[in-house]
Amino acid sequence: MTFNGLWATKTDDAISVALARLEDDQLMDGDVTVAVDYSTVNYKDGLAVTGKGAIIRKFPLIPGIDFAGTVESSRNPGFKPGDRVVLNGFELSMTHHGGYAQRARVPAEWLVKLPDSISAKDAMAIGTAGYTAMLSVLALEHGGITPDRGPVLVTGASGGVGSISVALLSKLGYRVIASTGRVQEADYLKRLGAAEIIDRASLSEPGAPIAKPKWAGAIDSCGGHTLANVLAQTDYRGTVTACGLADSMELPGSMAPFILRNVTLAGIDSVNAPQSVRSVAWTRLATDLDLGKLETTVQEIGLAEVPQVAAAILEGKVRGRTLVDVN
Ligand code: NDP
């Protein structure tokens, strides 16, 4: 059987990614074969497809860090043909073929069955960015940040993790402050549920080690001075989650928020999260995300347009989520 997919190859130091007709026997080992419906473009896909980050470690490879689809065949008793499944992370697009193809073969333990109310298309409108947003909300809850504790800040608010964090938090009753470099997107962010918009420039320069508290918690996808300033302005016993490095990989901050305000910095990793955590996150997404609002965050593209969007996401030019219809 043949199928369409993006095929990443490497010559010398350059990566090239092109649409190709692939054979079934080019799929890698795995006990479940999936007919893929949709994948997405996340920031990590931008790094992988452009070659600006050393994400792909084995060539040639089908990129794409996530997919949703339907099980075609399975050698694992936990899955049967017709099951609707989602996969976020693990080795996809690193050492194992990913989601930018019509077919995928993967180890069963990487897959999560989709809740009935979430279609494959919804699952990828949510994508790894949305699932990471949910992991971040769970971490805030774990830190005891309830809506009555005060507002919650979301940085990189117009991006994938940011947009879905705003939508989730507002549905859960939090007052959401959205930080963005695109203040022209204020209406979009307010429609998603933001109560207040701040310019990300107010957080991106070196700041005081500790400052007037402005939020009970925060979901940060930027790192760098942004994260250091977010920590400095977090209220007593607040929690800040850190999943991303859209600003920087550095954390040029102070100990002051931790030892004077008892602030917790909670790291978020979606790639190797255990199955129990993934299942909770997808179950909560089924109830806590307004799928109508989600639609406003999504643009849909085909496989051939992925390289162009991959470059744009690294430049911070992509709003919300990009769904890839692989068929
Ligand atoms: P997006 O590109 O969709 O969103 C990132 C947003 O950050 C941009 O839209 C922009 O929002 C803001 N931004 C961009 N550049 C800068 C800058 N220089 N300084 C401050 N803010 C900036 O990416 P995703 O939402 O897909 O991912 C966000 C981050 O989270 C990435 O670093 C990604 O690698 C990471 N991530 C980590 C995961 C994990 O498991 N730990 C999983 C998923 C994502 P605005 O214009 O509104 O300011």
From TrEMBL:
InterPro entries: Acrylyl-CoA_reductase_AcuI (IPR014188), ADH-like_C (IPR013149), ADH-like_N (IPR013154), ER (IPR020843), GroES-like_sf (IPR011032), NAD(P)-bd_dom_sf (IPR036291), Zn-ADH-like_protein (IPR051397). SUPFAM superfamilies: GroES-like, NAD(P)-binding Rossmann-fold domains. GO terms for molecular function: acryloyl-CoA reductase (NADPH) activity. Residues 10-324 form the Enoyl reductase (ER) domain. PANTHER family: ACRYLYL-COA REDUCTASE ACUI-RELATED (PTHR43677:SF1), SHORT-CHAIN DEHYDROGENASE/REDUCTASE (PTHR43677). This is Oxidoreductase. It comes from Kaistia nematophila.
